[in-house]
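Please review this one:
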Amino acid sequence: MSVEQKPRDPWLLAVWPGMGGVAIGAAYYLMAKLGMRLLLEFPAGEIFDLENVNVKDGLIVTRRLPRSRIFVSLEHAAAPREIILFIGDAQPPSRGTAFCRRLIDRARELGVEKVFTFAAMATQMRPEHQSQIFGAAIDPETLATFDHLGVKIFENGKISGLNGVLLGVAAESGMTGGCLLGEIPNVFSQVPFPKASLAVLEFFTRMSGIEIDFTELRTHAKTVDATLEIFLKRMEQSAEEVEAEESHQMPMERSTPRAMDADKQHIEKLFDAAHNDHSLAYGLKQELDRLGLFNEYEDRFLDMFKESE
């Protein structure tokens, strides 16, 4: 699809990494289930500057700059609209507003009039409890929709980063939309919490009329909930003993183990399967996360969603 080929009544969903992996987790799942394709990529050098370089064995190794890409859903002709999905590897350290204006201009070229972002809301909730959805809207109509469909209105406060700035720029451009925030336990704010990703994505798809299968995400959320709840109870029973005896099991520690040959062969098989059927991509991402290899394979993973030449 070229920029000149406008999708039908498209909505823009923009996400960046953040607490609980709420936005990114939801975006990757949506991308896999809608069979999205890469539409365009913003040149990284125009957004980010190198702040340092790595040194390996005495040699300077230039770091890869974060990527900023737009994907589009085109395979679900029965859906009432297409979703334009923007995924940023990181938020620009400066001139974020200028980048948001650039993104909104590109979205307008594609016919977008409604813009959404996802984020996290850290509270005192326990992992086993239902994740609430909080919402803040650009316009009264979207706010009324949030309220009618059971979203807890985020009445006062701030939405930090480009999750909020983008909506401010969209509002200046006369667009509508808002931010959906998934509730996460504040004690585990640095741990991926798929239940919150599931909550915001279920609401977003219901509101947009897009239908996808949530089986894998629900199963993943239940597994993580059980693990975190057990860990939290251990913390409550003896915080000092857990810190001394169980620290190597804390989920906040993100290990990056060197994969065994068998693991790499397993990953290659999953890539082959997901390349032929993108609905399997979320299972591939779970395995990459489990092995601590997603950062190493991230570009290859997202490149699967390019249009075949």
